[in-house]
Specification:
Elements lengths: L10 H25 L11 H8 L5 H23 L6 H26 L10 H8 L16 H25 L7 H24 L7 H4 L2 H11 L7 H20 L4 H32 L12 H28 L3 H4 L5 H8 L1 H23 L6 H42 L15 H8 L9
Helix pairs in contact: 1-3, 1-14, 1-15, 2-11, 3-6, 3-10, 3-12, 4-15, 4-16, 6-7, 7-10, 7-12, 10-12, 11-12, 15-16
InterPro entries: Acyl_transf_3_dom, Acyltransferase_3
GO cellular component, one term: membrane
Keywords: Membrane, Transmembrane, Transmembrane helix
């Protein structure tokens, strides 16, 4: 949130952001603990279903992307559905830059010096340059320095594309009556879904070849692969899930707040939320089965080949749709449904989630490398070691993230806002007077939304 405050935000989504971060931390901690002998998931029987939930948190990355798609596309949706002034591209880029650059570059600098000094020599200069330019989802840098960094590359690349993608969509959506604009917007986003899944099929099934190999030279074909897919895909179908929710949200809150669609979604909100959770759990079983092939969930064995084949093509899309359903249900849900997600500590976790996400993995590895060997001679059991592991995260990662949020992130956001204000137009005055225009008139020229914060 701007200046570290809760104003101009959607409270329930602050909590959702906190859950996304906590789920990723839980996944990494459980997985690292699993491979270092301090936690053993049940791989068969009823316990396997609980273990599937405990290792589900990897999908928290997808939830971050859905939130970004929703929050950042929301101002553009409002503009294209209501003919209000188009959001400033310059302001968008400045706010995004000062939101993510300070925390990221401070973390990169410290990690290179203290955790991965080997990457400061000339032989790794190219890899470091990819990190500096947010292209660390390219090959060779996927797991270097700090594994979670690759997702920031996808976020940053989405930021670069979004204003121009929104402008292209607006060229089609803004034509005609308002009643049909939501349908046209959904059609455009459907193409984005197709593009995201299509690039995955092109790379995973066709190996990045196909007809394009006859059009482009090997060099340019390789560049196309890197910038359209990278190592794991650009997740445009996931961002599109959040963008579609933004379109529906804008339509039902501005154009037809008491219309049929708004009434229907409000009535179905608990069902939408439950449907999203059900789909998420089913996909988590699929994910868990492939983490331990041949050892768990044997009822899936007959479908093993298909589950492997379609995993990287369709899992991100299904996760994105599931999270979008949950968010849709929460946005329109009753107070009893929203209240758990608006809990103060959970919202605060959402506030510091950026630094917490960046640093938690390295801190987990520090525990395994330096602390665990000192506890193992004590012959403590797995529950005790696992508890110590969690205490380590609580007393290190959370305080560090709070400090970085206050010392690095908030000053960065405030500086970005100051720079943005320098580019804002002066107040407009009524002709022949020194009085400002009426508020309802001025608002048309300055309408914006301030919830497009880093998810």
């Amino acid at each position: 949130m701007d200046d570290g405050k809760h104003k101009n935000s959607i409270p329930v989504l602050d909590g959702v952001r906190g859950i996304a971060c906590l789920s990723i931390i839980t996944f990494h901690m459980n997985l690292i603990a699993r491979f270092n002998g301090i936690w053993t998931p049940a791989l068969d029987g009823p316990g396997a279903f609980a273990s599937a939930a405990s290792l589900f948190g990897e999908a928290g990355v997808i939830l971050f992307f859905v939130l970004s798609g929703f929050l950042l596309f929301l101002p553009y949706c409002r503009a294209m559905l209501t003919d209000t002034p188009w959001p400033s591209v310059r302001r968008f880029y400045l706010r995004r830059a000062f939101r993510i650059f300070p925390g990221y570059y401070v973390a990169l600098f410290l990690m290179l010096i203290f955790l991965s000094p080997e990457y400061l020599n000339w032989s790794h200069l190219h890899a470091v340059w990819l990190f500096i330019t947010f292209r660390m989802d390219f090959p060779l840098t996927f797991q270097l320095v700090n594994a979670p960094f690759w997702t920031l590359a996808l976020e940053f690349q989405y930021y670069l594309v979004l204003p121009w993608l929104a402008l292209a969509i607006a060229c089609l959506v803004r034509r005609g009556k308002q009643r049909g604009r939501l349908i046209k917007l959904a059609g455009c986003l459907l193409l984005l879904f197709v593009y995201g899944v299509g690039t995955r099929y092109w790379m995973i099934v066709l190996g990045g070849e196909g007809p394009l190999s006859q059009i482009f030279s090997p060099f340019w074909l390789e560049q196309l692969k890197l910038y359209s897919y990278g190592s794991v895909g650009k997740d445009y179908e996931v961002f599109a899930s959040g963008m579609l929710v933004a379109g529906i949200y804008s339509y039902t809150h501005i154009i037809a707040p008491i219309g049929r669609l708004s009434h229907l979604i409000r009535r179905l909100s608990p069902f939408l939320f439950l449907l999203g959770l059900t789909l998420l759990y089913m996909i988590s079983l699929w994910h868990f089965y492939l983490l331990f092939p041949g050892k768990t969930l044997h009822f899936l064995d007959p479908y093993k080949e298909s589950l492997y084949y379609y995993k990287d093509i369709f899992q991100p899309l299904l996760y994105g749709i599931s999270f979008a359903l949950c968010i849709q249900g929460l946005l329109y849900g009753a107070t009893w449904l929203k209240r758990p997600f608006e809990w103060g500590p959970l919202r605060w976790t959402g506030l510091i989630s950026y630094s917490l996400y960046i640093w938690h993995y390295s801190i987990c590895l520090l525990f395994i490398g330096y602390c665990l060997p000192r506890f193992q001679p004590l012959n403590w059991g797995q529950p005790a070691l696992f508890t110590v592991d969690w205490l380590w995260i609580l007393i290190t990662a959370f305080p560090l993230s709070i400090v970085l949020y206050k010392v690095v992130e908030i000053p960065g956001m405030r500086l970005g806002e100051k720079i943005c204000k320098r580019f804002e137009r002066p107040k407009k005055y009524a002709p022949g007077t020194e009085e400002p225009l009426p508020a309802e008139v001025a608002a048309r020229g300055h309408q914006s939304i301030a919830v497009d914060n880093k998810a």
